[in-house]
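testing teh design pipeline on a random one, pls ignore if ur not involved
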């Protein structure tokens, strides 16, 4: 447990907003004449980039330019509605501040675009804690491919095994595992029983406050953060 860096997913991990994203997707896809099945979306879309989601649910032949334009519309709608509701997952700032004090480096690895990343980091006032930002528009293969986590490790100048990932989605947890990283799963979007048996998952917690209360080795590691 000699982690040198913490790598955070964003949606569903820094803030509990995936249900809101899905609601906006439903409304947006409806305007394009596509009916969204929430169960299907949870099974195969959460954690993926907008390009992957739009090609899967709208049309596999969409051009990069069409993807950019559609993604821009969907995310503008999301940001305009979500702004007043933004709240961190309990204990996040405490964990970030303690990690920083202990010299642990911090990265964001989100499938969302850079505008959404700035919107969240500024909205939660946590931008200064992050040493590295990797967003969905900087990768060629989205989660569950490990590229985003490997890129984060490279920019943090760590070996992948020295990074601990915080994630809420099974696809993101798979990406972390394929990158050679252990993870903590947040049960904000999926029930704990969907997450606890996934490879590489050390613990499933509803929020960060709970991490400080755990027993065992992991508990000892995080207790040292709770002073
Ligand atoms: O990788 P993250 O931070 O969980 O982000 C994934 C989400 O990114 C958002 O931008 C998409 O609109 C969501 O539908 C997607 O699930």
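output:
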């Amino acid at each position: 447990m000699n982690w040198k860096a913490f790598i955070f997913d964003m949606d569903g991990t820094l803030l509990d907003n995936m249900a809101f994203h899905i609601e906006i997707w439903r409304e947006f896809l409806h305007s394009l004449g596509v009916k969204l099945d929430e169960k299907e979306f949870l099974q195969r879309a959460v954690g993926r980039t907008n390009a992957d989601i739009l090609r899967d649910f709208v049309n596999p032949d969409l051009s990069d330019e069409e993807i950019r334009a559609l993604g821009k519309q969907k995310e503008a709608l999301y940001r305009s509605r979500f702004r007043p509701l933004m709240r961190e997952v309990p204990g996040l700032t405490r964990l970030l501040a303690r990690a920083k004090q202990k010299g642990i480096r911090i990265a964001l690895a989100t499938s969302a675009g850079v505008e959404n990343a700035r919107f969240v980091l500024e909205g939660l006032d946590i931008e200064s804690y992050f040493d590295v930002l990797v967003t969905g528009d900087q990768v060629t293969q989205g989660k569950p491919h490990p590229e985003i986590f490997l890129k984060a490790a490279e920019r943090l100048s760590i070996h992948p095994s020295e990074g601990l990932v915080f994630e809420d989605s099974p696809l993101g947890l798979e990406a972390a595992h394929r990158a050679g990283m252990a993870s903590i799963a947040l049960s904000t979007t999926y029930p704990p029983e969907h997450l606890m048996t996934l490879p590489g998952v050390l613990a499933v917690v509803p929020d960060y406050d709970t991490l400080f209360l755990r027993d065992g080795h992991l508990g000892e590691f995080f207790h040292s953060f709770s002073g």
